Amino acid sequence: MKRLYNRINRDILKKRVEESPIDRKTLSFYRYALIESPDQFRDTLYDQLDQFGVLGRIYVANEGINGQISIPEDQLESFRQFLDSMPMFKSLRLNFAIEDDPTSFFKLTIKVRHKIVADGLNDSSFDVTNKGVHLDAARFNQLTNKEETIVVDMRNHYESEVGHFENAIRPDVETFREALPKVVDLLQDQKDKPIVMYCTGGIRCEKASAFLKHQGFKDVYQLDGGIIEYARQVETQGLPNKFKGKNFVFDERLGERISNEIISQCHQCGVPCDTHTNCANNACHILFIQCPECAEQLDGCCSPKCADFIQLPAEEQKEKRKTEVFNGTKFGKGRYKANNQKKPMISPT
Hints:
Blueprint: H1 10-19, E1 24-32, H2 38-52, E2 55-61, E3 64-72, H3 76-84, E4 95-96, E5 108-112, E6 133-135, H4 137-144, E7 150-153, H5 157-160, E8 163-165, H6 176-186, E9 194-198, H7 203-214, E10 219-223, H8 226-237, E11 243-247, E12 256-257, E13 276-278, E14 287-289, H9 292-297, H10 304-309, H11 314-320, H12 327-330
Parallel strand pairs: 2-5, 6-10, 7-9, 9-10
Antiparallel strand pairs: 1-3, 1-4, 2-3, 8-11, 11-12, 13-14
């Protein structure tokens, strides 16, 4: 029986991709559609995509599919044809990365989930098909130019910290599940105003817009294709770009630049910076923003403690991990913002 999982060491996989001469495209896609047997569909999908050389992360559920992948460029048409061969995924839109990188993913992972996005909603309690009006980039710009329009970022705080649309309301949350009730509460007295929602690729707004309409909001819109498609349309159509900074992405890149503005700061020294990274101490691995100078000073770590820890012998690290507490175990994603955490300079003797 063919193994439908990749169990090769991540470092080996990463080296293979970095050394490969194959041109790859990074893209994302989603669709809400009934999948009667997600487990069976997952195995069929893995087998086929593995043959195409696809790498990435895909979630499958009864309600549909949600994927972020990279694929060899010469397999792209075969991939499209495979999707079109299934009526429920015919003409599925592929959101291509704005800043492509062949090393965005190193292995293929396909998981069966209860939902393709963890939203915490009881779908049977409201009409999930009664969604907001979809806006292309031109209509988004027109509507958000109106003073009464409210723009809502449906992403997490660490995403909006490095990039967001002008004048957007940005909930201080770590998960989409937290965002929904918070947005409803924030906008409780503005139910008659135009509400325009956006997210990375559009998937979060599909449910969020329907939920807001269920909560009594009258005039709800969503950015079709999210920030990714907006940036593409702005460039190809020569439209004004109302997005400032970077678009956070959930792959090895951790971000793609949409405009030249840097709107965030290094979490360690406070200089303008929008480069996300994970602490080089895998026992910590917290997500934070770090400038090149701090990265060099702290060996890519979030604190002197982590920088010292990774210098220890592997066996000593393994033993200390059982009792040591790091920022990754104390703070949520992007919550660690302690400035002046550089290692003290040693004066020459």
